[in-house]
Amino acid sequence: MKKLLACLLAGALFAASVHAQQLQAIDSIAAVVDEDVVLRSELDRAVNNILAQYAGRNDQLPPRAILERQVLERLVLVKLQAARAASTGVRVTDQEVDQSIAGIAQQNRVGVDQLREQLARDGTSFEDFRGSIRDELLSQRLRQRFAQTRIAISDAEVDAAVAAQANAGAQYHLAHILVALPEGVTADQIALGQKKIDGIKALLDKGEMDFNAAAVRYSDSPNALEGGDLGWRSLDEIPAAFAQIMRNLKPGEVTAPLRGPSGFQLLKLVEVRDASQAGPSLVTQYHARHILVRVTPTMTDAQAKAKADTARARIAGGADFAEVAKQESEDLNSQSRGGELGWFGLDDFGADFGTVVANLRDGEVSQPIRTPVGWHVIERLGSRQQDVGSDNRRAQVREQIGRRKLEEEWNRYLLELRGEAYVEVRGADGAPVTDAASDASGG
């Protein structure tokens, strides 16, 4: 849940104002993307968000023109994913957008009204922000559908990965720089890609640029603006062709250029840790169900509280909790299951929610409680100590393999999507420009 909210927040702030409501007279088009456009105001706000994230570390960013090109490319991909999602029947409801915004506000320890005021101070209208959240949700749904239809994991793969983890507990923190090659690549394109990746490696070897800055400036990967960071991975999460190379690297070292499915890569081993000695990882999990009444522009806090009080009174009077949840709860994920939330950790639904559940007895129903999402009535059904390091290992390994496969296939899919689209980049004067990417060798 937290990772989802963090992802939504980063994407929303990055792509703010995708649906600009009031355009300034000086606004212009930064890029035409099929039947849509990226406005200059959108690009400027997105670049300013990146500059704010790198406050005090501006030396890690490329020159403004190159940064704009990187950011514009991301905005183009957001547009393309949202359009593809819409054209294939992927939908996001207003209620789901409201729920995501409430979660973002909660993560920032503010209310929705305070978030609205903060956006206004930053020069972003709330409707623009809602539009960017909707596009991010559409992109996520598209990615989920892609995973369901394109990614398959066999039991044999999981067995092999579990065995590999038992024999080698090392985990590797990696970063990469990608020089992408298109489908049906020509010999000239391969040669140009090889020249560019060799030039980047030469800069790193001479110490003229650190790896993170080179990734921001030159990488074609979607995570370029994060310095190419790939996070922690076990060997089964690293493509087999690269796994042996990782074993032979020392922290801080960078590989020679490698040819992979998406193009040429440089991999950096940031650090290594040993996870093989980790014993049982016991956590307390809770089983509960709830009724949620949301606070929205059409449902005031007082009205939502009154509705939650009524639901609580019905349950106290003998009504079945599940039936009341089906009738009254506004949590679309659990409503049809009678408010059933399954087993979850203390902080999975926020600290306030978790504290109430932890203080209830099994079978006890809470008084209505307020969270940034709205008013909840909660029934605790049980608790347990769960060894997530043992009982869930196969599920975790399956998820790891799925993430690795999805990353490889999704990046290729985005390259295909971008290659098929009509994209016309325009300069500050509105005239079309050639978006010729310079390589690190100076060519």
From TrEMBL:
EC number: 5.2.1.8
Main location as per UniProt: periplasm
InterPro entries: OMP_Chaperone_SurA (IPR050280), PPIase_dom_sf (IPR046357), PPIase_PpiC (IPR000297), PPIase_PpiC_CS (IPR023058), PPIase_SurA (IPR023034), SurA_N (IPR015391), Trigger_fact/SurA_dom_sf (IPR027304)
One biological process term in Gene Ontology: Gram-negative-bacterium-type cell outer membrane assembly
Places the protein is found: Periplasm
Keyword Cytoplasm in record: no
Top-level taxonomic group: Bacteria
Reaction catalysed by this enzyme: [protein]-peptidylproline (omega=180) = [protein]-peptidylproline (omega=0)
One Pfam family of this chain: Rotamase
Residues covered by the PpiC domain: 169-271, 283-382
Keywords from the named record: Chaperone, Isomerase, Periplasm, Repeat, Rotamase, Signal
GO molecular function, one term: unfolded protein binding
Signal peptide (from-to): 1-20
Entry GO terms, CC: outer membrane-bounded periplasmic space
PANTHER family referenced in this protein's UniProt entry, alphabetically: CHAPERONE SURA
Free-text comment about domains: The PPIase activity resides only in the second parvulin domain. The N-terminal region and the C-terminal tail are necessary and sufficient for the chaperone activity of SurA. The PPIase activity is dispensable for SurA to function as a chaperone. The N-terminal region and the C-terminal tail are also required for porin recognition.
Function, as annotated: Chaperone involved in the correct folding and assembly of outer membrane proteins. Recognizes specific patterns of aromatic residues and the orientation of their side chains, which are found more frequently in integral outer membrane proteins. May act in both early periplasmic and late outer membrane-associated steps of protein maturation.
Entry protein name: Chaperone SurA
Organism: Montanilutibacter psychrotolerans
